[in-house]
## 1
Amino acid sequence: MRISHWAIAAAVLANGFITKPGGIAHVWVGWAVMGVFASRLIWAVVGPQEARFSAFPPSPSAALHHIGNLLRGRAREYPSHNPAAAIMVYTLWACLMLVTATGLLVTDGKSPTAITEERAAIAAGNWSVLVKSSSEGDDNKGEFYMRVAGEVHELAANLLLVLAAVHVGGVLIESRVLGRNLVRPMIVGRRRRS
């Protein structure tokens, strides 16, 4: 769970602030995220109890109650994610799935290797790789969907960064209210019991 958390966090930061949008590194990071995310979803079904979906079911009313208690300085401890964190986890995952899906649409589902080969062929003067077969349908419609997918991809990626910042803020506030470092167990793996 910790490895997937930090791998996805690093990938989001890399593709949000470091790699060139649409560049090969950006696409490689996106494909890596798909693999890490898929393994995390599997782990949420077969992993230890605190990592499973059943350990942190989404409940908007429980999340609001928890936030109210947190603001009053009376947060309680949970064996897994608190209700607000559970909502955030599911929201982050949904946003990450949208970013990944639209990224695949924008690249026509091509692997980073295929994109690299295509770009190398173009650089070598072989423009035939850009010609689509007539069986691929209406080109204008395809371009429209690609443009929409690109806009949704960018919007969802920016939303993901905002949600990540809110997540970090929530962890810092909860750490202060509970009087313990909630980041430390996500790094070293040991949780101090109250």
## 2
Amino acid sequence: MSDSPVAATTTNALSSIAADELEDIVLLGVPLWGWQVALAALGVLALVLLAGTIWKPTQRSLRGWALGNIVVNAGIAVTGATVRVTSSGLGCSEWPKCTPDSFVPIDTGHAAFNAAIEFGNRTLTFLVLAVGVITLIAVLRMSPRRRDLVRLATIIPIGVLGQGVVGGITVWTDLHPASVGAHFLLSMVMVFIAVALYVRCQEPEGTPKVVVGPMLHTVSIALVVVGFLLLIAGTVVTGTGPHGGDAAAPRWEMDLPAVTRVHSVLGWLTLMGGAAAVLLAHRGGAGRPARLSSVALLVIVLLQGVLGYTQYALELPETLVVLHVLGSALTWVAIARLYFATTRLTPVEERVSTGADAEAGPEADRDGERSSAEPAPGR
């Protein structure tokens, strides 16, 4: 028992170090733990207020939760970019723990600011997962239950869990650009699924039917392919450029101007595809969803292009890099929205009973806008 004073002294010293380290992590005058407590309290309050939309969902409330999935999955890609440009990627050097001895950022060996940024981004994963799980519960509670929506809603939380695994691999590989890129691309896949859920929950259960001219539908498919290649090229540019998330992070041994030109060419192809979609949608008499989606895509890609050339000319300033990632997410959302605007789910019995549609062409359906005789989805 003679060593108990020594043990007590050691414990007090460690507690003092932990307290000092936690006290260093202050955002806007509030300690990090204070922000966590506040966000947790807000989350509980939000659940209480929105309980009815989860347990007794309506088509409108389910659409809101689907939109929430789009926002949080795109948002965490943007916060991930913030982690990279602030060199905070190893602010928590371990996974699933932050450090070998702690789940929270204590004695990380990095600046308190970097530890707070990385730990905060990790914490947001729980928000993304929560929104996904809540949406799945709401879909399961729908009456009648729709198998197609259940499938979409199930994929989202599974994908978020996969994000956590990829995030762990990213840390274990010291932010290798391949794992960093995969992390971002998986978020974009989840965004695409969330857009599908957002659109399809407004339609009756059935099989997809093309409701625009065949050329516009083909362009929308091509935009999905080119758009995803554009995202991949963007991750390669990021993996070659200066913002790797940490000064010691490995980089792709590529020529930055060369990979940037490839990214730029794909961007111009996306712009031309967006312009073609606008022309085809308006001249072909497409419905309002396709027309609005095509215009939104064209505007977003134009702004994204201006931003991309500006950040390259200014040698990739951090703020513009984050804004460019946000623009990438918005471009992908617009591409997905246009794609799903070119088709509509149609009940099998409706397709059998209205064989005239096949002869009349897409104009007979008014390009996806339901007629007054068509029942509202979910009823």
## 3
Amino acid sequence: MDAYSIIVKPHISEKTMNLIEEKNELAFVVYRESNKKQIKNAFEQLFQESVKNVNTHITSKGIKIAFIKLVNENKAEDVAVRMGVF
């Protein structure tokens, strides 16, 4: 499956902005049928950064959110700047 079809868009909120700074994590809206391994591979392919772990959450609206923790410290801020979040 194509990486662009797995990772739909960044999920931006006050909570996710704090996660970027405090826990080196990024949040993305992802394809509902994707699993953690597919999400990890898609992120690494798109952003060329190593992923430590992936946690997923399905909201009450049926949207799947992936919280991606990066291996390298402060790399989440660099990726966020490249995406145009900051």
## 4
Amino acid sequence: MAAEQNHDSAACKRVDQGITRVFQLLGKRWSGPIVAVLVEQPAYFTDLRRAVPGISERMLSDRLAELGAAGLVLREVDEGPPLRVSYRLTEAGAALEPALRELAQWAKVHLPESSAWPETSLERPGRVRA
């Protein structure tokens, strides 16, 4: 007979609500890299698009709107000419900098660049390369 484990199974099911909210927002594809770019300095929309390879204009616009609604990013319009839109972090967004730096350091140690991620891998299961 297997030994019965003595633990509170309800405790295993609880996830910190703060962690849940953070990952609901920053865990979305592209959100973290956008914030990471803006931690360095404010940026125009076109500069953000160049800084985050692979993101479409529509996705960048959507993510910036979400980050703005969450109070992390401010959108500022320079009437020009030419009309330009820039984005910068709010105080709350800028407060993410230490956590982002820690995550970047953790990734350097625990997620080597040679790791192949499914979204970025050129080789997919079942695909034969010539």
